[in-house]
Amino acid sequence: MPRRGRIISIDNAKAMHAVGRRTHTDPRITWILANAEDVATAVTGPVDAVLCNAAIWKTDTTTTFAAIKRIL
Description:
Blueprint: E1 7-11, H1 14-23, E2 29-33, H2 39-42, H3 61-71
Parallel strand pairs: 1-2
């Protein structure tokens, strides 16, 4: 990751954040407990990219993709 880069991890499961925090300690990572559908509310400002690990199908995809579009 570039020195000025940052990662915002959004997950609605505290357990997933706990695993991530144990595994990745880089201070440029921000951990946000939220649903994917709320990404545009949880993340302020535009982002360069959005990556979904695997569980996008568990969300209201219409709402989630609309929220992603707002922050891109």
